[in-house]
Amino acid sequence: MREPRRRLDPADRRRELLQAAERLLRRRADGVRVEDVVAEAGAAKGTFYLYFPTWDDLLEALRDELFARFEALAPEPVELDGPVDWPATLRRIAAAYIRFNLEMEGLHDALFHSDFARNRPVPVHRGGPARLAAMISAGQEAGVFAPVPAGLTARMLFAAMHEAADAVREGADRLAVTLALDALLHRALTPEIDP
């Protein structure tokens, strides 16, 4: 005899579907289907479509949740309690990005390197380069960072952060990668001092 389905608040049911999709996509980025998600969540297929009209809508909601988690894990500093140590903040954000990227496992490819990612790119204001550019600009205003083009430099540094995570994923020593990335950030953003 089949167990009766649990009645959940709509917000809880939506969260349950997202969590089921996340668990499945972490294990394997390709081949996960709506049927797999509803089976994992213990929900009916029709329930999925009440909350997510398309598969891409589910992936977008999942990506938004990941951005919110990262922003909570590595919040942008504010100068309410005094001046911000921008170089230390940037190193902290870079290390947090590497850790977060590695923890995503297969979810990373599904959300950022798939047809979904090409069809629904990350909104510019939510992406890592935009966040880095804002931090570089703030550090420049504080007189700490070199007068480099913030947007372009942020894109290049974000690419370096991504490569750093990939290197660790492929077996490179995490501490060595982090130290190399720290050195790169320092060289890219430290103002040159005239002799």
In a few lines, what is going on in this structure?
The protein is an all-alpha fold and 195 residues long. 68% of the residues lie in helices and 0% in strands.
Describe this structure in words.
With 195 residues, the chain is mostly helical. It folds into two domains: 53 residues, Arc Repressor Mutant, subunit A, CATH 1.10.10.60; 127 residues, Tetracycline Repressor, domain 2 (Orthogonal Bundle). Helices cover 68% and strands 0% of the residues. The radius of gyration is 20 Å and the shape is elongated. The termini are far apart. 23% of the residues are buried.
SSE layout and pairing:
Layout: H1 10-27, H2 34-41, H3 45-51, H4 55-73, H5 86-104, H6 106-112, H7 115-119, H8 128-141, H9 150-169, H10 174-189
Low-pLDDT parts are: none
Radius of gyration: 20 Å
Strand content: under 5%
What is the helix content? 55-70%
Distance between the termini: 83 Å
In this structure, how is the largest beta sheet organized? none
Mean pLDDT over all positions = 89
Please tell me the CATH architecture of the largest domain by its name. Answer: Orthogonal Bundle
Number of domains: 2
Please work out how many helical segments DSSP would assign. 10
- The arrangement of helices and strands along the chain is HHHHHHHHHH
Might you state the CATH topology name of the largest domain? Tetracycline Repressor, domain 2
CATH uppermost class of the largest domain: Mainly Alpha
Q: Which geometry do the CA atoms define?
A: elongated
Structural class: mainly alpha
> How many β-strand stretches?
0
Query: What quaternary form is this?
Result: single chain
